[in-house]
Amino acid sequence: MHKKGVLIFLLFVSFISIAIAQNASTNNPSSNSGNTNFVAKAYQCLQSQVESKAQSSISLQEAVFGVLALGGNSKLISVIESKAVSGNHWQESSNPLKDTAQGLLAYNRIGRNTNEIKSWILSKSKPATELTWYIEIDIENHESSGCNLSYSNEQQRSITINEDMTISGNPGSCLSIAQEGFWLRVANTCIDYNYTISCNKDFTTSTLYQRTGSSTIYVSPVAHSTSALGTTTERINSKCLTSSSTSCDYEGTLWATIALDKLGLSVSEYIPYLLALSESNKKFLPSSLLHILTDGQDQYSELVQQQQQLKFWEAPNTPYNRYYDSALAILSLQGTNSAEETNSKKYFETITTSEGCWNNNNIRDTGFLLYAGESRAVAGPGPGPSPADPCEPAGYYCTSALNCAQLEGEVLNEYLCPGTKECCSKAPALQSCSALSGKLCLTGEVCSGSTQKSTEGTCCLGTCGPAPQTNECTTAGGTCDDSCLDIEEQIPSSCPIKGNVCCRVKSTSSESSGLGVWMILLIILIILVVVGILFRNKLKMMLFKSRNNKSPASGGPSRPSPPGRPPFPPYRGPMPYPRAQPRIISPSSTPPIRRPLSSKDKEMEDTMAKLKEMSK
To answer: Is 272 in the same domain as 135?
Structure first.
């Protein structure tokens, strides 16, 4: 009896352990082994969605980001080719410059010739007149000095740099003294000129700029120094891109600059416009692509602080959604070892559809997220094999071609970098967080001050604290969006943006509920087995009685007594069951002859045999 009880207990513990293990596996999909399966499933889902959709119903954006993720998919390439205008640009949306730049990236990804597309983009270049430019002259040791200026067809002009570094004199028709006398302002009609400067003391010159009407000043990264009577030359070369004949196109310029940089072309002339106009174009999340281009600390800090709920990015008044915007951010942060990148990837791993895609199996968003965060080497029709060896494990650095040139490095095309980045032979010298006098915030914390890249990831130069709950929806554990996914449920919590609904992942609760039902049924079944074994003798008696000793009072048919035998007395309760006395059977004794079992007895023994079998 004791052994059977132990067996049942072990059986019960085994069932419980299996159930708990299954539940843990369900609720923790972000394990290392699961990550590989998750990425493979996402790629498989994207491929399946492309195959199941008619070619005529695939949009240009779906085709472009599908090719960026999958590579040379014939159906997607056919879509891109069919939507090209004159073979050198695209115009499916209201922004042909952005469409064309993204198409160029897709063609470059698979090794297609992009010369005509590149020429079309460069033909849309124009001066960026939205900026105000300045020239600064700084005399070493802040001594008074006389300087000469020459530019264009203007005769040489003489000015004086005073001890307080203010400027006096007549700088000519293209220049005027501005900013309380400290800088020379360049007229918009003269921004393409070369300005040659010479002073009788050691000096340094540099350029500065700002968006017209803004108080934010940007300093150009390059300054020029020389000794007394030497010369420096400053050139104001500020351009943007446009698909119209009037104003610059910010989003188009942003994507076109990324595409041109990917081809290895110089894009420095577009950076001032993109930086200065970023404040008024927050809806495009410009800090992402600008960080790729410049590797600037300001853009990095702004981008990581824009992450919402430590999970995703969604720009204010974005024309897209959190999937697209998050892909932009991950594209920029890939390889930075930042907590923001890691947290976002874990979050998106938990909100895939049952097939493995994102946003109701949206091809564009799924392709963009895979291209940004899980880029794979792809085969294409271009010359030579595609690079397959990752850049940074080989000891190099992933950045833009522009930043690589500023580092005086060489672009190594034989190594692979994620997204639009290139492999550079030189890397900037990063310091540790402790050397920067900062701290690394823990998971679930945000930095209240400025942040900076360090060898360990994002270094907080302020204080770390819990992430603020910005609205009722986030407090309830949900996220705000225009609609809920299949794996989410809408909850009544409010969102700050009108028209959005609060969504919360429902898979965990439903799985736990289903598991609970099975656990209850399992426990009931085990209890029944235990009871059957513990009370098998009584159960045997009850079965025997119910089949052979039914009385008239029980409602069953009565059996007449045999002739000469008195009838059974009325039933008044359970009759004592005579217990057999033990007897010793010697080996030499003849075993008793058993009488044949009746059909009812056989049924009872079969029943008991089954109960014993269940207890094993």
So the answer is: no
Tokens 């050397």 correspond to 435
What average pLDDT is seen over the chain?
81
- Reading the block at residue 33, the tokens are 């082994």
How many whole angstroms separate alpha carbon 263 and alpha carbon 115? 10
Question: 310: left (phi > 0), else alpha (psi -120 to 50), else beta?
Answer: left
Q: Which helix (H) or strand (E) holds 525?
A: helix 507-534
How many whole angstroms separate alpha carbon 278 and alpha carbon 246? 19
> What gap in Å lies between CA 115 and CA 563, rounded to an integer?
116
More confident residue, 511 or 372: 372
Phi and psi (nearest 5°) for 436? Answer: -85, 0
Rounded to whole angstroms, what are the CA distances from 242 to 102, 246, 256, 598? 15, 8, 10, 100
User: Same structural domain for residues 248 and 278?
Assistant: yes
Q: 315: closest CA among 284, 346, 337?
A: 284
Query: Nearest Cα to 355, choosing from 60, 51, 59?
Result: 51
Q: How far apart are CA 569 and CA 135, in angstroms?
A: 124
Whole-angstrom distance, CA of residue 525 vs CA of residue 212: 78
The number of distinct structural domains making up the chain is 3
Do 340 and 333 meet the contact criterion of CB atoms below 8 Å apart?
yes
The DSSP output letter for 202 is -
Same domain for 255 and 318, yes or no, is yes
Provide the token pair at 410: 């060489």
| Residue among 351, 394, 395, 390 nearest 374 (CA) | 390
State the pLDDT confidence band at 600, using cuts at 50, 70 and 90.
low
- pLDDT at residue number 9: 53
Q: Helix or strand or coil: residue 311?
A: coil
Residue 281 burial by Cβ neighbours in a 10 Å radius (0-12, 13-18, 19+): middle
pTM of the model: 0.70
Tell me the per-residue pLDDT of 271-326, one tens digit each, with 9 for 90 and over.
999 999 999 999 999 999 999 999 888 999 999 999 998 899 999 999 999 999 99
Q: Which domain holds residue 492?
A: 472-508
Q: Averaged over 401-417, what is the pLDDT?
A: 88
Q: How far apart are CA 109 and CA 416, in angstroms?
A: 12
What DSSP string describes 475-493?
HTT-EEESS--TTEEEES-
- Both 289 and 309 in a single domain? yes
536-591, pLDDT tens digit by residue?
677 667 766 666 555 444 444 444 444 444 444 443 444 443 433 443 444 444 44
Window from 31-45, 206-220, 360-374 with minimum mean pLDDT: 31-45
The verdict on 65 and 90 lying in the same domain is yes
Spatial distance between the Cα atoms of 479 and 56, rounded to a whole number of angstroms: 34
Alpha carbon distance 231, 225 (integer Å):
9
- Asked if residue 89 belongs to a domain, the reply is yes
Give the separation between CA 433 and CA 439, rounded to whole angstroms. 6
Q: Do residues 121 and 241 make contact, with C-beta atoms less than 8 angstroms apart?
A: yes
375 and 356 within one domain: yes
Residue 514 — very low, low, confident or very high, per pLDDT cuts 50/70/90? low
d(CA 505, CA 397): 38
With contact defined as beta carbons under 8 Å apart, do 401 and 261 qualify?
Answer: yes
